[in-house]
């Protein structure tokens, strides 16, 4: 039996060449991509302005989706976790987070993660493989279809799920380009965020791409000894190198970097940490998101008290840093920050 290729894994240039080889008119590319990215169709049969014979060709060459939803859980706060199966039987998770006038999807970029952050369940499970651009886009498209069926609209996309996006650079950037393209999903660049642990060469490369995205850095410590303990990647790229990469990043006017900071009981929230953080990012336009640690079975760390997090926030604000506390969403369904995990299909 012929193996069908996921059509969204093809770059625009590849799809254009495939169409040209079959003698299709030049306008067919825009028609096809319109159906792939702007209409919520479930089958090639639904692409009604394409010739029936051409739809049959598509059916014989490609599969429309590279993922299948196999489970869904909803928390009391409305957060929904989607479990998807890939064509090769891996399982990945994406999380839909409602918040007043926003509806944000947290997308995964890898099955597992190579970074090994000790406070993150995904990292403790190890790495299986990179996701393709089509698998990232299909998380967005499948969830968007469900959202629209409920009369709502997906407003924001964050690459903060399973995996390190810049460790899967080519595929992540290809998916991001489709997300913000007028010929793709058409998201505003202001509504798309990429989060990284700070892979310095890739951050510098991203700075040259010309993508006006929101960049978030997973910081989590203010000195190299502590950050190396929490995040092995810091042994390769020190805090000084990571912050230097941010200083060389062309930040558009009115935009700020987001610093994500998981607060761990007794580890990284002292007054000295507050002062070191202020010195570290002096002169940079940043906002700090404090994320109280979300415990999981076998975790080495504990969640700080609410009072401790509020005190740390107050210390940072006194030092002039715009600081917010990010409320954990979907904890009871393991959908909160650091709790996503890959599972092999049966």
Structure description:
The protein has 346 residues and is of the alpha/beta class. The chain folds into two domains: 59 residues, DNA polymerase, domain 1 (Orthogonal Bundle), CATH 1.10.150.530; 278 residues, TIM Barrel, CATH 3.20.20. The protein is 32% helix and 22% strand. The protein is built from eleven helices and 15 strands. The strands form three sheets. Strands 3, 4, 5, 6, 9, 10, 11, 12, 13, 14 and 15 form an eleven-stranded mixed sheet that branches. The chain has a two-stranded parallel sheet with strand order 1-2. It has a two-stranded antiparallel sheet with strand order 7-8. Strand 9, helix 6 and strand 10 form a beta-alpha-beta unit. The longest helix is centred in the middle third of the chain and has 17 residues. It starts with a strand and ends with a strand.
- Number of distinct beta strands: 15
Order of helices and strands: EHHHEEEEEEHEHEHEHEHHEHEHEE
What's the CATH topology name of the largest domain? TIM Barrel
- Global shape: elongated
Q: State the share of residues found in helices, binned by percent.
A: 25-40%
- Portion of residues in beta strands equals 15-25%
CATH class of the largest domain: Alpha Beta
* Euclidean distance between termini CA atoms: 22 Å
Q: In the CATH hierarchy, what is the architecture of the largest domain at level 2? A: Alpha-Beta Barrel
InterPro entries: Aldolase_TIM, Elp3/MiaA/NifB-like_rSAM, Methyltransferase_A, RlmN_N, RNA_MTrfase_RlmN, rRNA_lsu_MTrfase_RlmN/Cfr, rSAM, rSAM_sf
Cofactor: [4Fe-4S] cluster
Binding site for S-adenosyl-L-methionine: 163-164, 195, 218-220, 294
EC number: 2.1.1.192
């Amino acid at each position: 039996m012929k193996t069908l290729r996921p059509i969204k894994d093809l770059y625009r240039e590849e799809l254009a060449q495939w169409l040209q080889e079959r003698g299709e008119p030049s306008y067919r590319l825009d028609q096809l991509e319109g159906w792939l990215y702007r209409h919520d169709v479930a089958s090639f049969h639904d692409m009604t302005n394409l010739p029936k014979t051409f739809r049959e060709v598509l059916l014989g060459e490609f599969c429309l989706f590279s993922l299948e939803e196999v489970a869904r859980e909803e928390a009391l706060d409305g957060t929904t976790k989607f479990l998807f199966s890939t064509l090769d039987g891996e399982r990945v998770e994406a999380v839909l987070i409602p918040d007043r006038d926003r509806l944000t999807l947290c997308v995964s970029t890898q099955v597992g993660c190579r970074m090994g952050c000790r406070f993150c369940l995904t990292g403790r499970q190890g790495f299986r493989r990179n996701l393709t651009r089509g698998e990232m886009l299909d998380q967005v498209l499948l969830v968007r279809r469900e959202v629209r069926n409920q009369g709502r609209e997906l407003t924001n996309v964050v690459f903060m799920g399973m995996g390190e996006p810049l460790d899967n650079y080519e595929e992540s950037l290809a998916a991001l380009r489709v997300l913000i393209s007028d010929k793709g999903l058409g998201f505003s660049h202001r509504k798309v965020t990429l989060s990284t642990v700070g892979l310095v060469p890739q951050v510098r490369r991203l700075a040259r791409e010309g993508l006006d995205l929101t960049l978030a850095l997973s910081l989590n410590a203010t000195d190299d000894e502590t950050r190396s303990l929490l995040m092995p990647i810091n042994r390769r790229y020190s805090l000084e190198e990571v912050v230097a990469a941010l200083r060389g990043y062309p930040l558009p006017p009115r935009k700020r970097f987001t610093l994500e900071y998981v607060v761990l009981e007794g580890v990284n929230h002292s007054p000295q940490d507050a002062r070191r953080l202020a010195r570290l990012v002096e002169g940079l336009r940043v906002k700090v998101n404090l994320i109280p640690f979300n415990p999981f079975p076998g975790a080495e760390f504990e969640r700080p008290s609410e009072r401790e997090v509020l005190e740390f926030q107050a210390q940072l604000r006194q030092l002039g840093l715009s600081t917010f506390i990010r409320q954990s969403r979907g904890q009871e369904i393991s959908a909160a920050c650091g709790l996503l995990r890959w599972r092999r299909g049966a």
